[in-house]
Write a structure and sequence with these properties.
Layout (H helix, E strand, L loop, with lengths): L2 H7 L31 E2 L5 E5 L2 H4 L12 H12 L3 E2 L6 E2 L2 E5 L13 H18 L3 E4 L1 H12 L10 H4 L4 E2 L4 E2 L12 H14 L1 E5 L2 E5 L1
Parallel strand pairs: 2-5, 2-6, 6-8
Antiparallel strand pairs: 1-5, 3-4, 7-8, 9-10
């Protein structure tokens, strides 16, 4: 599928929770009875967009829902439960003002990691979905997602070390977005969970908006 076709397929379809834009991945390495992908999931008009790595890392190979099943995925889910965005069952929760997806949506056989070529092949699909959601706050989880978001959607990557302990819960201005990285939950140290919950709650309590293409907070 060409970049133009990807963009044309992205429409603001708000009555679907899973894969609201009808994206179709360009390859399938799963078995006949396995899910092809963990598609984007949640509120297509959300202000908050959480971005993970791939289903093997952050969950969804069985449920088809990002941030389910795995220890890391459920830890992220529970942060947003505490912040009031998530309710309902953990395998298929209800999201309000929140959208979840992955840099690499396709499911892979157990033990396999995406190749660089596969990440590259899916980049235009991820980008099309991110721009269709057009959230104010991007929250990438882990090294891969954070590196991608900082490189592609801010001008800050060259001056920032990819040190997730340092970047965790920081508010970084991007090109039309505010970026708030989240350290991989499997690497959380004492206080990391409380810090990201507090940061999200602080953003919610402020007036966040976009001014001249840059996400800002007032108050």
């Amino acid at each position: 599928m060409s970049d133009r076709a990807v963009s044309a397929s992205v429409k603001n379809v708000t009555d679907r929770t899973s894969n609201p834009f009808g994206l179709r991945p360009p390859f399938d390495r799963t078995g006949p009875d396995e899910r092809t992908a963990a598609f984007g999931y949640g509120d297509a008009n959300a202000d908050f967009h959480v971005i993970g790595d791939h289903p093997g890392a952050h969950g969804g190979k069985r449920t088809g829902v990002p941030f389910t099943e795995t220890e890391a995925g459920l830890a992220v889910q529970d942060v947003f439960r505490d912040a009031g965005f998530v309710s309902g069952p953990r395998r298929r929760p209800d999201l309000e003002n929140l959208y979840w997806n992955y840099v690499h949506m396709c499911c892979l056989p157990n033990g396999h990691e995406p190749t660089e070529a596969e990440y590259d092949e899916l980049e235009r699909y991820f980008d099309a979905e991110l721009r269709a959601i057009n959230a104010h706050i991007l929250l990438p989880v882990g090294d891969r997602a954070t590196d991608h978001v900082l490189r592609e959607y801010t001008t800050q990557r060259a001056r920032l070390e990819l040190d997730m302990a340092d970047l965790h819960a920081r508010e970084i201005r991007g090109r039309g977005f505010m970026v708030v990285p989240i350290r991989n939950p499997l690497e959380w140290e004492e206080g990391d969970r409380e810090t990201i919950v507090a940061t999200i709650e602080s953003i919610l309590e402020s007036d966040y908006r976009q001014t001249k293409g840059v996400a800002t907070r007032i108050g």
